Amino acid sequence: MADPKLRAAFEAKRFIVSPGVFDMISAKVADGMGFDCLYGTGFGTVASALGVADAGIATYTDMVARMGRVAQGCATPLIADADTGYGGLLNVRETVRGYEAAGITGIQIEDQEVPKKCGHTPGRRVVPADEMVLKIRVAAEARRSRDFLIVARTDARTGLGLEEAIRRGQMLADAGADIIFIESPESEAEMVEIGRRLGRYPLLANNVEGGRTPILSAARLKEIGYAIAIYPAVGFLAAAAALERAYAHLKQHGDSNALPEQESYGFKRICELMGFPDVWDFEKRWAMKE
């Protein structure tokens, strides 16, 4: 079930910094670092699980299985990407129910046409505002607990302009969304305007390294009216860079003996992270009973 700690953090006006997680290693690492929330990135999850672009290829089944496993394996509340809700209104209802039953604490639903695309790539189109409003109303009705948070995202800024994006944000808040996500503002001035117009609601800033939106500090985001910042790409970008360096070293030297210490997490640490000490303790206690 949804973790009430996340709603409590929002109600306490505590600014939330949320790292993107995309598999169980990234989730386990982030889970032990004291964040208020983890963000289950669709881009990273699709990339790590399927090795394809975040372009509407992953299904509800793919995502609820992966994100549910993250939620169940971590103590930190998880907000997970659910694209467009995977279809029409009935699909949205079942998606909300499935994510909540899987132990996820928040669901992100966006107003793109199907197939959707990553929010910082070109060619995105949005459905009519009224269609998205119905999805959020259905999502709000479908959840079993008010602690299950609905993040409503609009991608209208890129194709229809800032004013339309803000108008949709207000409509989504009125429809019952807990967190408003205006995707891809293109300047700090635009972000200030979003905060001025919609800052009475919890606002989400999407910080993508190399994306369309400037990355502001947590202090600045809070100052201009935001409540949460997600960093969906920071983990998988770092992982890909580290893998590239490690594999290049292996290719060049033919072994990993001289791999710089900072490039290796350490086998002992990864065993601890994955729970091997518990396995070894179990085997020790039950060895004579088999």
Topology readout:
Layout: H1 4-11, E1 16-21, H2 24-31, E2 38-40, H3 42-50, H4 60-73, E3 78-81, H5 89-101, E4 106-110, H6 129-142, E5 149-154, H7 156-160, H8 162-175, E6 179-182, H9 188-198, E7 203-206, H10 218-223, E8 228-231, H11 234-253, H12 267-273, H13 276-286
Parallel strand pairs: 1-2, 1-8, 2-3, 3-4, 4-5, 5-6, 6-7, 7-8
Report on the structure:
The chain has 290 residues and is of the alpha/beta class. It has 2 domains: 236 residues, Phosphoenolpyruvate-binding domains (TIM Barrel, Alpha-Beta Barrel), CATH 3.20.20; 36 residues, no CATH class. It is 48% helix and 12% strand. It is built from 13 helices and 8 strands. Strands 1-2-3-4-5-6-7-8 form an 8-stranded parallel beta barrel, surrounded by 9 helices. Strand 1, helix 2 and strand 2 form a beta-alpha-beta unit. Helix 5 runs parallel beside helix 6. The longest helix has 20 residues. The model has no long low-confidence stretch (mean pLDDT 94).
Q: How would you characterize the largest beta sheet?
A: 8 strands, parallel, barrel
Q: What is the third-level CATH name, the topology of the largest domain?
A: TIM Barrel
What global shape is seen? globular
What is the fourth-level CATH superfamily of the largest domain?
Answer: Phosphoenolpyruvate-binding domains
Q: In the CATH hierarchy, what is the architecture of the largest domain at level 2?
A: Alpha-Beta Barrel
- The separation of the N and C termini measures 36 Å
In what range is the share of β-strand residues? 5-15%
Number of domains: 2
SSE sequence, one letter per element: HEHEHHEHEHEHHEHEHEHHH
Taking pLDDT < 50 over at least 5 consecutive residues as the criterion, the unreliable ranges are none
Question: Averaging pLDDT over every residue, what do you get?
Answer: 94
Instruction: Assign the structural class, choosing from mainly alpha, mainly beta, alpha/beta, alpha+beta, or little secondary structure.
Output: alpha/beta
- CATH class category of the largest domain: Alpha Beta
Keywords: Lyase, Membrane, Transmembrane, Transmembrane helix
Transmembrane segments: 224-243
Pfam families: PEP_mutase
Protein name: Isocitrate lyase/PEP mutase family protein
